[in-house]
Amino acid sequence: MAIARLSRQAKRPYGFCAKMTAVAILGLCFVFVWSLFSSSSSSVAARRESFDEMAEPVSGNSRVSNFSTKSSNKEVRNHDKKVKSESSSEKDEKKANGSVSKSVNEHKSEKKSPKVVPNKRKGKEKKKLPEKGTEGDDKAAESEEKEEYDSEKEIEDGDKEGLVVDGKEEALDRDGEASEDAEGEGGLVEIVDQENEGTLESEDGESRKGGQKRKKIKGPLFDPKMHHSWKLCSTRSKHNYIPCIDYETSSWRAQSYRHTERICPRTPIMCLVPLPHDRYEVPLRWPESKEKIFYKNVAHPKLAAFIKKHSWVMESGDYLAFPQNQSEFKGGVLHYLESIEEMVPDIEWGKNIRVVLDMGCADSSFGASLFNKEVLTLSVGLKDDLVDLAQVSLERGFPTIVSPFGNRRLPFPSGVFDTIHCGGCTINWHSNGGKHLLEINRILRPGGYFILSTKHDNIEDEEAMNTLTSSICWNILAHKTDDVSEVSVKIYQKPESNEIYQSRRRRYPPLCKEDENPDAAWYVAMKTCLHTIPSSIEQRGTEWPEEWPKRLETLPDWLDDKDKLAADTKHWTAIVEKSYLTGMGIAWSNIRNVMDMKAIYGGFAAALAKQNVWVMNVVPVHAPDTLPIIFDRGLVGTYHDWCESFSTYPRSYDLLHADHLFSRLKNRCKQPVSIVVEMDRILRPGGWAIIRDKVEILDPLEGILKSLQWDIRMTFAKDKEGIICAQKTKWRP
């Protein structure tokens, strides 16, 4: 009011003094406001300096945060955003993801070029895991296990391995910027929206909500005082519910109940998937399950109509029967495989060809027949149909994973499959800039084979395919239309060197940038570019692996830490032979589908190689990226974040193995109990779970398993480490 009065007086002829007074007052006000903001800024800087003196231990699976970090013997976590956060150096640090090693490749987001920052970790004192139950301990095995357990922890806690990085989380780190895979997919933006609304917890105990961070969660992973009550899920897909694949919307306009991309619910699933309506039957033992399965276990409305149109599967009483040598191809699948070997004699099934990817998961006869030839075929059930043939494949006991194939990469490293097969799959390889075929090129081993068989050749599609394969320098080894099977078969081979890329007249698609990681696959968009082929002997992929079965025990030349791989194999061989196979009461004749929920070098799967089982080796996101090593050994696996649901049907696995999984996820998942709920979803009634972890985690976990009415078959603890062996029942709330 005083200033306004002075202003009015200043308009008068005699108001010169009043004018000067007003100017002085306004100047003082400006100085006061400026000093107020200046003191606030200095207080922020002072507060930052005080936090910089604080430090906390770094977990074994910690990753470099998107916030600036300082390291001494312990890694320092900053608790407020720096005033100078817009400087170029800090922007580079935001993109850092871990260290680079020749032995283990680093996964990072493809959106920006990350800066490599040393990933310093503090080693922890190693303790021995018990391997025997209450029935008695084998002292020799225990001492051997202690030695190998130390080696295993060195694998996880060492600072040389790169980390598997979550592409979705990195996109959120960049101020909620959506990743490239949202292009053309309206539903994909939902992921970013959901995560921006919720709280995203990083592995090192930090959480971000609207740019703010929360201190590391303290206390036990599972609250021992928590009482758990369960209810059944009420979903459209009912007993076949796959949380990150199936839509759950009240809108009646949704014509399809499946996502075209992986989109998980906003909150973790805390309900139990019901059993099939007509009672669930324990699956038939292998190898009988190859020939027939219980129909009620995989019943689906569209499956009934599908059966009537195909001869390779038929309904026989309570069973679905699969006549021997029957397939989608006339003349049988054996004739089909023999014709491929005749076309390209270098393809020797079960020798130089061990790991095969079958796109589409049609009748499973291709993988079933190759299994008899010592070939491990992983089928990918593409969710562009509602027949649920992938579930049929899993019920029969064949390696299968469910995955959309739209805009994102498949969850595999680069250059790991010896052969990729597409038999009658309905994928338009040449559309969208050929990005789907370029994704196949990414995961195909240099010198590997792509087998494409079609029943009805379209001239325009064939010309477009020929143009695309020529542009990526694939060599057509053979092209034949078989009179018996009535299919046209083309066999392509991927180049083994980069020289041919430079000789292209029209260099499209272009070569990928050097800073784009070909192994980054989790929530990473497909690229319409060609990754260069490894050329140095120190790089993975320059040489073809040894023939099977020598391949399983051979240490790759490109691997630096060969001793760790040998120690991991010795460690799990001792445990499996002296404990798992004999000391837990598991009827291994009933076990076929096995999952290692936190695989390292595939030692657990290698120890089971002589059993009639196959193992899905899961390398968790943000763990050391050892999945390429697993594939090089002739085994199969995938990347996954256990804070989300796994891409498979309910009741898929007979045995789950979790070695120190929960302790590594303490500060990553919002609700760790949801991991137990997911285990209940993917494990079959009558299936087994072997869980090894710290006693402080296993004690409340045992209570959770009992609340799910699981039978605790064995518990054992020693030196703060323990093991639980439990069996799931048919109980549903």
UniProtKB/TrEMBL annotation:
It comes from the Eukaryota. It is a single-pass membrane protein; Single-pass type II membrane protein. Its EC number is 2.1.1.-. SUPFAM superfamilies: S-adenosyl-L-methionine-dependent methyltransferases (SSF53335). Its main location: membrane. Residues 118-127 have a biased composition (Basic residues). Residues 72-96, 104-113, 128-143, 160-177 have a biased composition (Basic and acidic residues). Belongs to the methyltransferase superfamily. This is Methyltransferase. The lineage of its organism: Eukaryota, Viridiplantae, Streptophyta, Embryophyta, Tracheophyta.
